Amino acid sequence: MTQNTKVILTHEVEKLGVAGDVVEVRPGYARNYLIPRRMAMPWTKGSQTVIDRLKASLARQQIASMETAQMVKAKLTEGDPILIDAKAGANGRLFGSITTDQIAKAAKAQKGVEIDKRKIMVDQPLKAVGTYQLTVRLFEELSSPLEVIIRAAK
Questions:
Q1: Does pLDDT of 54 surpass 80?
Q2: Burial of 53 (0-12, 13-18, 19+ CB in 10 A)
Q3: How confident is residue 135, by pLDDT bands cut at 50, 70 and 90?
Q4: pTM score of the predicted model
Q5: Average pLDDT over residues 4-24
Q6: Domains of the chain by range and CATH?
Q7: In terms of CB atoms within 10 Å, which of 51, 84, 90, 153 comes out highest?
């Protein structure tokens, strides 16, 4: 059995932790995924000061991020839903499906809001014309409903 490696997370990693956390992961996961993508850095005895500075910086950023997330939520919920035109057959079934990337681009174009495509929660694939209620995870405990209407392109 290989022994787990300690790393310090520099970004939030789903199902692992938030920035500043010290976690134990498999050596290959740390070496091949987390560290090259700058999501984590190797833990050393002297890195505790780095952790403290990182947490202080994140506390300041978190306040600003929460305010920004609330403004984004207000923009997403006000006004008309997001409209996406897609090629569809006679029965309303789409040729392909609508991706979270397409939804994020439509939100930017129509609402003036940038959303990370990974934060859009889709329960089932969007493969038919119609209205869909989605959720956008804006912050740790803040999410916003998002209504998307898919129309057949003319």
A1: no
A2: exposed
A3: very high
A4: 0.64
A5: 88
A6: 5-67 (3.40.5.10), 71-152 (3.10.430.100)
A7: 84
Beta bridge partners, 88, equal 94
DSSP the chain: -PPPEEEEESS-BTTTB-TT-EEEE-HHHIIIIITTTTSEEE--GGGHHHHHHHHHHHHHHHHHHHHHHHHHHHHHHSSSPEEEEE-B-TTSEEEEEE-HHHHHHHHHHHH-----GGGEE-SS-EEESEEEEEEEE-SSS-EEEEEEEEEE--
- Give the Cα separation of 36 and 136 in Å (integer): 28
> What is the CB neighbour count within 10 angstroms for residue 84?
21
Note the Cα 11 to chain centre separation in Å: 12
Residue type, 5: T
Over residues 82-98, the pLDDT tens digits come to 999 999 998 989 999 99
Among 100, 75, 97, smallest CA distance to 86 is for 97
